[in-house]
Amino acid sequence: MAASKKCLLIKYKGDTRYGLEPTLSTHDDVHMAAKSVLTLGEMENAAWHYDVIAIDEGQFFPDLVERAEQWANDGKHVLVSALDATFQRTPFLNVLEVIPLAENVIKLTAVCSDCHKPASFTKRLSAETDLQVVGGADKYTALCRTCFQKPDAHPNASRGITDCAALPASKRQPQKKSSRLAQENAPPNRRQSLEALSRPSNTIEAHVEQRRKSLQALTLR
Q1: CATH topology for the 7-220 domain
Q2: What secondary structure, in 3-state letters, does the chain show?
């Protein structure tokens, strides 16, 4: 309950970094009661009893667009915290699709772990290649544009990732015809002109976690 409003906090069930308890935990060890689900549709019946619905890790929910729009149209105040892109700088399409439906969009930045400038991109530290790898500062860090483009910035990435995501166009390796055609047929990236905001924090690590947890905050009302 906040400001006489009943609040529902939803977290992604695949995020078990802080244990299996149905709580959402911040990097500063603040814990809040939350419902842990794999799809937002699992909360369809419960949502009717709340005024505010907050969704964490929105990029992982396949039904994000449908449910967020439905709840907003039902008069709920819907908050979504999500990443807009992967560590390869490819978009999470469900997040890009929900942006035009929101009344308010805030894009946050972190602090570059290399040069300490504002950072908008993510570097994966672990060797996993799957797009969906849940983790914190042990698996990810934030980089600014300049540091992201350094050839040695992605030691665990495949050749294709480095060529397509990290290097400037003038230095990229020629793509095979099939790859080029696939890229041409892919949906165009939707670019949003968003106001970049930074939240004060005592440590760089907290900024990095802030970037990972709340890069894309969306409000539907």
Answers
A1: Rossmann fold (3.40.50)
A2: CECCECEEEEEECCCCCCCCCCEEECCCCCEEECEEECCHHHHCCHHHHCCEEEEECHHHCCCHHHHHHHHHHCCCEEEEEECCECCCCCECHHHHHHHHHCCEEEEECEECCCCCCEECEEEECCCCCCCCCCCCCCCEEEECHHHHCCHHHCCCCCHHHHHHHHCCHHHCCCCCHHHHHHHHHCCCCCCCCCCEECCCCCCHHHHHHHHHHHCEEEEEC
